[in-house]
């Protein structure tokens, strides 16, 4: 068991994040002043802040003794202890990880502070190619964020149902085969919540994102009703960016595409995750690669010029060649947006931690880098990025777009720099206050996750949001 005792600081969370990035599940034992990991080598270390703000992480036997080198612009104590802890974990594990000691969800935040890939690598041990990616993506994020006025509101509508549960998924979504009867009742609750809040909404709507789950899980009539609920109650202008995460190709019909087009939807997501039909079947996705291609073509013929497609790197049934072939196949179709996700271990997913986190000699890492190269060679630019705990191989999720087609909602939401009003079970509303550099203070208002609880309490959820946004 690996143990790190803390002295002179209380950054348990940061130390635990660093250890987790190398060895998996980690425990913050604050009662005993330590962080420990049972699945790591048998090592006991001390993390301490020394005179001058320099951090040190060392073992009593002297085998591990890592001290940070002072930097020109001192970093905070929270970050400083992570720097020395990272160096110690490199020594204990015998390996480095791509993002160094940057364990937060938003590497572009720190990249924006530095705006220099070399500084990002020198201070935080970020691998040079990732540092370049973070700085480039961060600059694009900031450019696009200026297109979303801070006085406007951004709206998310969540549909927590899917036609089947993918093996890697643990989102707050239900396999609709067991819950078909709940769809009309969920729409009733969603309509009640939106109609209660909408009269208080005085701010211009900058973006709307209809996500899930799979919003197109409804039949044609149900989906048309969903679109009516949104557009009859929320003021949408020609300048409002309206995205629908259609998602599963097997749920998309010509009638649903027409309903979206009629209601002003400008951007849709059709997500194959892989173009390997054998993998799709094993993942419990009920469509083939050809189904995706057919729906993609149908969406284009319906008039959608901005289509996003998602791919996942590191799927347990695939090798690096399979993933790269999918990227090449997507690039040939030339969608406006492509998002590359790296598989991560979600808490309630059927897939095991071993399937996600097992060492692979860097194959997934190299495949992701090659996927990025292919996209950029085809004219795509990275415009938003985020990381998640327990992501395989220490990697990230990056959104690419042909210039001028970027999703502003993604930027507003991922940067935590714009207000988000969320409707539906499991949604998270956010209010943003003040600004110091590119940092904001964010307050959050969660909506109940349980679908039945939400349906029984939609009016209460609405009242909570009215209060949260101070009558907007």
Q: Return the structural class.
A: alpha/beta
The chain-level mean pLDDT equals 89
CA-atom Rg in angstroms? 23 Å
What is the CATH architecture assignment of the largest domain? Alpha-Beta Horseshoe
The CATH superfamily of the largest domain turns out to be tm_1862 like domain
- In the CATH hierarchy, what is the class of the largest domain? Alpha Beta
Which residues sit in consecutive blocks of at least 5 with pLDDT less than 50?
345-353
- Tell me about the biggest sheet? 9 strands, mixed
The proportion of residues in beta strands is 15-25%
Strands across the major sheet, in which order?
Answer: 15-16-14-13-12-11-10-7-17
Q: How many domains make up the coordinates?
A: 2
Number of strands: 19
Broad shape: globular
Could you please say which CATH topology of the largest domain applies here? pyruvate-formate lyase- activating enzyme
How far is it from the N-terminal to the C-terminal residue, by CA? 51 Å
Question: How many DSSP helices?
Answer: 16
Helix-residue proportion: 25-40%
């Amino acid at each position: 068991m690996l143990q790190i005792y803390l002295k002179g600081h209380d950054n348990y969370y940061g130390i635990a994040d660093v250890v987790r990035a190398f060895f998996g599940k980690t425990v913050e034992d604050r009662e005993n002043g330590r962080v420990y990991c049972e699945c790591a080598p048998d090592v006991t270390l001390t993390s301490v802040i020394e005179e001058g703000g320099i951090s040190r992480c060392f073992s009593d036997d002297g085998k591990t003794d890592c001290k940070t080198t002072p930097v020109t612009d001192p970093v905070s104590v929270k970050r400083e202890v992570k720097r020395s802890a990272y160096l110690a974990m490199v020594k204990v594990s015998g390996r480095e990880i791509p993002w160094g000691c940057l364990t937060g969800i938003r590497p572009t935040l720190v990249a924006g502070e530095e705006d220099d890939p070399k500084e990002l690598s020198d201070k935080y041990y970020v691998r040079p190619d990732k540092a370049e990616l973070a700085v480039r993506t961060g600059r694009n994020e900031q450019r696009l964020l200026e297109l979303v006025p801070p006085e406007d509101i951004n709206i998310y509508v969540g549909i927590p149902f899917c036609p089947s549960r993918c093996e890697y998924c643990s989102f707050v979504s239900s396999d609709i085969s067991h819950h078909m009867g709940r769809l009309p009742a969920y729409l009733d609750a969603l309509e009640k919540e939106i109609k209660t809040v909408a009269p208080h909404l005085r701010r211009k709507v900058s973006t709307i994102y209809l996500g899930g789950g799979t919003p197109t899980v409804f039949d044609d009539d149900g989906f048309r009703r969903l679109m009516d609920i949104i557009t009859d109650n929320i003021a949408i202008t020609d300048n409002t960016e309206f995205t629908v995460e259609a998602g599963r190709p097997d749920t998309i019909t010509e009638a649903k595409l027409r309903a979206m087009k009629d209601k002003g939807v400008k951007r849709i997501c059709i997500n194959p995750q892989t173009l390997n039909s054998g993998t799709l079947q094993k993942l419990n996705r009920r469509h083939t690669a050809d189904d995706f291609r057919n729906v993609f073509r149908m969406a284009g013929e319906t008039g959608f010029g901005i289509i996003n497609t998602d791919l996942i790197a590191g799927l347990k049934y695939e090798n690096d060649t399979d993933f790269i072939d999918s990227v090449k196949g997507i690039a040939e179709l030339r969608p406006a947006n492509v998002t590359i996700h790296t598989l991560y271990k979600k808490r309630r997913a059927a897939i095991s931690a071993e399937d996600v986190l097992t060492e692979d000699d860097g194959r997934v890492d190299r495949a992701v880098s090659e996927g990025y190269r292919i996209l950029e060679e085809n004219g795509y630019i990275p415009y938003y990025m985020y990381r998640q705990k327990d992501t395989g191989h220490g990697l990230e999720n990056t959104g690419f777009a042909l210039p001028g087609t970027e999703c502003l909602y993604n930027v507003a939401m991922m940067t935590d720099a714009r207000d988000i009003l969320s409707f539906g079970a499991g949604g998270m509303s956010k209010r943003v206050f003040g600004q110091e550099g590119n940092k904001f203070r964010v307050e959050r208002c969660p909506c109940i996750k349980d679908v039945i609880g939400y349906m029984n309490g939609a009016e209460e959820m609405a009242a909570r949001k009215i209060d949260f946004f101070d009558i907007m």
